[in-house]
Amino acid sequence: xxxxxxxxxxxxxxxxxxxxxxxxxxxxxxxxxxxxxxxxxxxxxxxxxxxxxxxxxxxxxxxxxxxxxxxxxxxxxxxxxxxxxxxxxxxxxxxxxxxxxxxxxxxxxxxxxxxxxxxxxxxxxxxxxxxxxxxxxxxxxxxxxxxxxxxxxxxxxxxxxxxxxxxxxxxxxxxx
Length: 176
Description:
The protein is α+β, with helices and mostly antiparallel strands. The chain has two domains: 8-102, Alpha-Beta Plaits (2-Layer Sandwich), CATH 3.30.70.100; 110-171, no CATH class. It contains five helices and four strands; from the N terminus they run βαββααβαα. It has helices at residues 21-35, 65-72, 75-84, 110-132, 141-171; strands spanning 8-16, 40-50, 53-62, 88-97. It has a four-stranded antiparallel sheet. β2 and β3 (53-62) form a beta hairpin. α1 packs antiparallel against α3 and α4 crosses α5. The two termini are 48 Å apart. This is ABM domain-containing protein. The chain crosses the membrane at residues 115-136, 148-171. Keywords: Membrane, Transmembrane, Transmembrane helix. InterPro entries: ABM_predict (IPR038762), Dimeric_a/b-barrel (IPR011008).
């Protein structure tokens, strides 16, 4: 017995060429057209300001990949996509969602994340062990550990890890 197909969503972001109202109106027309298609489940429109420009996000969800494909090949969608070129700058950013595991982009591997955190943690842990821990020898182990982690975690999360991530991004040519 075959399992029921999972719902499929497509999320698209476009940056308005001028004031965002015209692009938002276009997005509403797109959602109304999608709602007339078989298998349509939901639509969503969102706006955000990015560097003083309006970015409009459109999401459409269909009951199956076949329903989504029918929508993507429809004359109504094709007509609306031809119209948006005058309203938006650049190419759309499109994300297809066909299962819960794809809601977020894949991040770095667990090994890479582990190494990154260890490299960010080491200098602060070394300084703590050299400078602070000798002064706390009389403290109970639990109190020393509490202080150590209270200083290490914010130091790594707010200090060394962001700097290390930015350094590695710049080094790999993907500056943030």
